[in-house]
Amino acid sequence: MLKIYFVSTILIGALLLFVSCGDQGGNTSNKPANTANNASNAVPANTAAVEADIKKLVNDTAAALAKNDVGTLEKTYSDNYMLVNLDGSVQNKADRLASFKSGDTKFESFVYDEVNVRTNPEGTGAVVIARATAKGTNRGRAVSGSIRVTQVWSKMKDGWRQVSGHATTISDAAPAKPDDKPAADAPANTSSNSTANK
């Protein structure tokens, strides 16, 4: 019985696959056979040029943040922009800009370094992971120190726009590497001190 069920399931799946791949009616001679294959035939984007463009935009954004330049930020963020703040709260473009206009968000300094850009093959999208060093307030809370930032950029009709951002505080303690060995004078890890290390 189980064998019959298994064989009939495979046959039904194969039939559905065959029907979905068949002629949908009409003339298909001018339609692409497979969009994925056609995309691979497209000329790849100059990723080095895209990366340079994005790095410039990242630095321009940092300068705008340091100056609390709402006009530049309004042009930088896409209409559907979303930001995950350090405290886990989410802001859309209107909320973010309103926070700057009200003075609830205000930076004295803001710079990016360790900027790493990855682009898609078509050159229409990029993901940035960078470190920001900032001093000021964000939504009324003090901000000072290093922040790991992720940004998503999309090339639109009117140029590159940042569509998403995420910020996470970088802790002072660097994580131990797997091959790190405890110092010779460190106490052995016993049950009494293992809970203190958690």
Q: Can you offer a commentary on this structure?
A:
The chain is globular and about 50 Å long. It has a domain at 47-169: Roll (Nuclear Transport Factor 2, Chain: A), CATH 3.10.450.50. It has a six-stranded mixed sheet. The chain starts with a helix and ends with a helix. The protein is built from six helices and six strands. The chain is of the alpha+beta class.
Features:
6 strands, 33% strand, globular, six-stranded mixed sheet, Nuclear Transport Factor 2, Chain: A, alpha+beta, 198 residues
Brief summary of the model shown:
With 198 residues, this protein is an alpha+beta fold.
Unreliable runs: 14-21, 180-198
Strand portion: 25-35%
The CATH topology annotation of the domain at 47-169 reads as: Nuclear Transport Factor 2, Chain: A
User: What composes the largest sheet?
Assistant: 6 strands, mixed
Alpha plus pi helix count: 6
Topology summary:
Layout: H1 2-21, H2 35-41, H3 47-67, H4 70-76, E1 77-84, E2 90-92, H5 93-102, E3 106-119, E4 125-138, E5 141-156, E6 159-169, H6 191-194
Parallel strand pairs: 1-6
Antiparallel strand pairs: 1-2, 3-4, 4-5, 5-6
